[in-house]
Amino acid sequence: MTSRTPAVTLAAVLLTLVVLPTSVTGSGVALPHIERDTGASLEALQWVVHAYNLTFACFMLACGSLADLLGRRRLFAAGAALFTAASLASAVARDVLLLDLMRALAGVGAAALLTSGSSILATAFAGRARVRAFAAVGIATGGGLALGAMAAGTLADSLGWRWFFGSHALAMLPVLAAVPLLRESRAESAARVDWAGTAAFAGGVFLLMFGMVEGPQWGWASPGVLGLLAGAVLLAVVFVLVERRRPDPMLDLGLVRNRRFMALCLIPVVVSFSFVILLPLLPNYLVVASGMSSRAAGATMLLMTAPILVAPLLAGLLIRRGLPSRAVFTLSLVLLTGGGAWLAAVLRPDIGPAALAGPLITLGVGLGLNFGLVDGAVLTVVDPRATGTAAGFLNTLRLGSEAVVIAAAGSALVNLTEHRLSRAAPPGRAEDPGAVADSVNSGDLDGALAGLPADGRASLLDAIAHGFTDAWQTVLWASTAVCALLSAAIYLLLADREPAAEPAGRPGTHSTV
């Protein structure tokens, strides 16, 4: 390995981690533009976001196993090629169903990139260099989250939504060029790929998310939705049984019994309920209820995402000053939970950036304090030979919770908005509150107001703004309650004093979690 390879390795992985989060934060901002261009239904539009999140989550564990088995550089290269090709195809897709399919393929590529990239860094750096590398991971990922909504809004408003996806492909070209300079690594005794476990896990997540998305359209008590949810539970049971019987499972269930490992893996779940649900959904609220443009909504989201660029540095400073990682994680969880409650309390139809600044900045700092720190800590409490699997499990829980929470929140907003509009009974459209709720939740205010006279528009606008706000507050308070419960559980689990596993490259070193 040449002397420049560590720098190239870090640069390639960090650029990847800037690009991948923009698909989460930016896709929601682009949806109104996609709807106007393609005339797609809300259901089809939702899958532009959900398809990416779904495959990203479903293939994370499998990619972790493949990275250990086939080689981390090899899987990183395959993921980069697939993500680039799918992003380019998304940019030129003329049919929304083809766009949904390409977003799903991009999610598979993203899963390979994220899992192998984390494992590459864990094996390429040791000691303090590893700590600095994973601090940079937090900053890079935060940069992607910060830029996603603003970039999507700017590109969609000025050049068109296709340039948003095309920019992903362009940004990945330097990553592809760097692949030959990366060092290959694999587990010394990696097991064969657990295809049965992979199929059961991916199928279960798919059925769960599909049921969440289709609940508002089909009805939550409909046989189709109940069947999807029952199938998800059944496949979850099958997955556990398969993993318990295999000598070389995709997921070592012993990891689940590691209290500190599970506590660290639950932190991203709190992030999903407090922070991530806002990324694709809040911009639509700002467009509909506050009358912002897509660009202005994306810029407002910077209040929440920009702090992620600096908060990881604060976390590193606190740890260097002697504050235990457990205390930093606890502070992060308090800010995430409190920020969600603050946002629920102040949200109103005419809200502007000034009133949003406090809760959104609080949420951004809360996330930034654990960004990168969680990933590095997880890899210090598992066997060094299983870093790919550990990274896969962490990111599966992270992306899986994001996919399910976003789908559930989106469905809840549709249902709650429809219910509020039904009670408000606005003139001229009282007979079809479901159609109005669909238009509102896709960010298409013009579609909700189409064909109404001026007086009817004013009445409906008021009903939409207040009904949508009520729906958002209900979702935010429910999410805050979940965050509080999870945070308490994480705090107790992190109190476990069991000795940590030695991290790769630093014998005799233990985690400070």
TrEMBL record:
<dbReference type="GO" id="GO:0022857">
    <property type="term" value="F:transmembrane transporter activity"/>
</dbReference>
<feature type="transmembrane region" description="Helical">
    <location>
        <begin position="218"/>
        <end position="241"/>
    </location>
</feature>
<keyword id="KW-0812">Transmembrane</keyword>
<dbReference type="InterPro" id="IPR011701">
    <property type="entry name" value="MFS"/>
</dbReference>
<feature type="domain" description="Major facilitator superfamily (MFS) profile">
    <location>
        <begin position="7"/>
        <end position="498"/>
    </location>
</feature>
<dbReference type="Pfam" id="PF07690">
    <property type="entry name" value="MFS_1"/>
</dbReference>
<dbReference type="InterPro" id="IPR036259">
    <property type="entry name" value="MFS_trans_sf"/>
</dbReference>
<feature type="transmembrane region" description="Helical">
    <location>
        <begin position="105"/>
        <end position="126"/>
    </location>
</feature>
<keyword id="KW-0472">Membrane</keyword>
<dbReference type="GO" id="GO:0005886">
    <property type="term" value="C:plasma membrane"/>
</dbReference>
<dbReference type="InterPro" id="IPR020846">
    <property type="entry name" value="MFS_dom"/>
</dbReference>
<feature type="transmembrane region" description="Helical">
    <location>
        <begin position="75"/>
        <end position="93"/>
    </location>
</feature>
<feature type="transmembrane region" description="Helical">
    <location>
        <begin position="193"/>
        <end position="212"/>
    </location>
</feature>
<keyword id="KW-1133">Transmembrane helix</keyword>
<feature type="transmembrane region" description="Helical">
    <location>
        <begin position="294"/>
        <end position="315"/>
    </location>
</feature>
<feature type="transmembrane region" description="Helical">
    <location>
        <begin position="161"/>
        <end position="181"/>
    </location>
</feature>
<feature type="transmembrane region" description="Helical">
    <location>
        <begin position="50"/>
        <end position="70"/>
    </location>
</feature>
<feature type="transmembrane region" description="Helical">
    <location>
        <begin position="359"/>
        <end position="382"/>
    </location>
</feature>
<feature type="transmembrane region" description="Helical">
    <location>
        <begin position="261"/>
        <end position="282"/>
    </location>
</feature>
<feature type="transmembrane region" description="Helical">
    <location>
        <begin position="475"/>
        <end position="494"/>
    </location>
</feature>
<protein>
    <submittedName>
        <fullName>MFS transporter</fullName>
    </submittedName>
</protein>
<feature type="transmembrane region" description="Helical">
    <location>
        <begin position="133"/>
        <end position="155"/>
    </location>
</feature>
<feature type="transmembrane region" description="Helical">
    <location>
        <begin position="327"/>
        <end position="347"/>
    </location>
</feature>
